[in-house]
Every structure is written in structure tokens, then in C-alpha cells.
Amino acid sequence: MKKNLVTFFFWGIVILFIIWIFTSSNKVQKPAYIKEEFNNDKIIEVSVDNIITKDNWECTDDCSGHNAGYEWAKEKGITDPSDCDGNSESFIEGCEAYANENSEDY
Fold first, then answer.
1. 36: β partners
2. Could you tell me the pTM of the whole model?
3. How far apart are CA 86 and CA 89, in angstroms?
4. Residues linked to residue 35 through DSSP beta bridges, in sequence order
């Protein structure tokens, strides 16, 4: 009887773990993209990073581009990262950071 009870709990935990893994993997969102068009007819697509915040952006120099994008988003009340655009990746990342920190999903 004791062996059956242990087996029952073991498989119950395994099943719950599998269900947890399956349901948590469905919450991962595919990245959104912002299309940038320039005066020289070049077009690029920049992915929207849904996890970047002010605490984890990576600057190559003094973070001025990130800070500018962050402050711009703050002034405009941007709360959706897909609303961020600009001519530099660091500016867009700063904007995304503000939006991510102030969205309902954060």
C-alpha cells in the first residue's frame, strides 16, 4: 500500500511539472519589429525587445542614446514597445526600456 501511494505522488508531481512546463512555454511572445525607412531609400527592421529595462541595457559608450530614448518615451507616455521608433538602435532600446517598465505586463 505504501509503495502505491509513493508511486501515485511521484507520477502526480511528474504530470504537474510537465503541465507547468507546457503552459509556461506558451507565454513566450514572438518579437515584434519596427520598420525604419531612411532618406537614402534603405529600409531596416529593428526588433522590439520586450525584456530590456533601464537596469539591463548594454551601452557601448556613455548611454546617451539610451537615455534620450528613455526620456523621450517618458515625455510621450509610451507604454507599448512597438510604439518606439527612431534612427538609432540605442534610442529605440531606451524607448523600449521605458515602455517595458511602464506597461501593464511588466
1. 44
2. 0.50
3. 8
4. 45
